[in-house]
Amino acid sequence: MNTSQKPLWLILAPVAFTVLWAGGYSIAKVGLQYAEPMTLLSMRFSSVVILLIPFYFFFKPALPKRSADWLHLVVVGVLMQAVYFGFCWWAFKTGVSAGVLAIFMSLQPILVAILAPKLAKEKVSWLRWFGLLLGLAGVLIVIIARSDIEPPTLIGVSFSVLGLLGITSGVLYEKRFGGGYHPIVTNMVQYAAGFAVVAPIALAFETMEVTWTPEFFAALAYLAIGNSILAISLLLAMIRAGEVSRVSSLMFLVPPLAALFGWVLLGEEMPMLAWGGMAVAAIGVIIVSKNRKT
């Protein structure tokens, strides 16, 4: 699609999504100071569904007509909400910083580019591969640079990798089977599916105790409205409007913003070499985004 033919919201969507998504890493760590991971996640998902109910009755968007379409929405919801966010927030509890977790998630374009030709029916050119590999090099630089400040733990790395696999699978599944339903319907079904998975885990393994503070309410509001309703709606809209490998390359822009939020809100350090690695990753995403021919 030519840029001049795109609606304004679609032109602005990448910037809005990147900022909202990046902020979610640090805001989640703030919220986890007052509630356990699955408890907070259950509150987040249920809040989203409750907030969307009035909008559903006002706009009355069409619902899926086939059971297979309902199933596709549920699968994406489980992968992108329960699996991705669940393992990411467990990674936070093991000590993984907001910036480092964002770096792990920026590996998603590499996996998407490998799998997209088969699962999403897209071609990935050699120049786009070069951009993706350059982004991977930047990611490795950041991990090495931060190793003296925060040595990675096996459990933290494992949770991060599982979260990465969750969102990668969700993006590819959405691209292949997504039905293009109204964002209200999509979000309500997918967050309800996520709640159905994480709430029983919270009941079984967590105390479900919450320290009610203004900071907690602010974090929950951001996670439910900004990081859930707005960011996920933008992500799904961009996936449907363009190639999945190019959309996923936006994840390379998230780490530097997440690291900045982590420094401001949580005091997390980021060495100069790590910022250099993020610059390398940013160059990679520019190459991937500009290379439109396959």
Strand-and-helix sequence, N→C?
HHHHHHHHHHHH
Mass-distribution shape? globular
**Major sheet:** none
Q: Give the total of beta strands.
A: 0
Report, as a whole number of angstroms, the end-to-end distance: 14 Å
Q: What is Rg?
A: 18 Å
3D structure, described in words:
The protein is mainly α and 294 residues long. Helix content is 77%, strand content 0%. The chain has one domain (9-290). α2 packs antiparallel against α8 (183-205) and α2 packs across α9 (214-241). The longest helix has 28 residues, at 214-241. The chain is globular and about 50 Å long. The two termini are 14 Å apart.
Write the layout of secondary structure elements.
Layout: H1 8-31, H2 37-59, H3 67-93, H4 98-105, H5 108-119, H6 126-146, H7 154-177, H8 183-205, H9 214-241, H10 244-248, H11 254-266, H12 272-290
Short description:
The protein has 294 residues and is mostly helical. It contains 12 helices and no strands.
Task: State the main characteristics.
single chain, mainly alpha, 294 residues, 12 helices
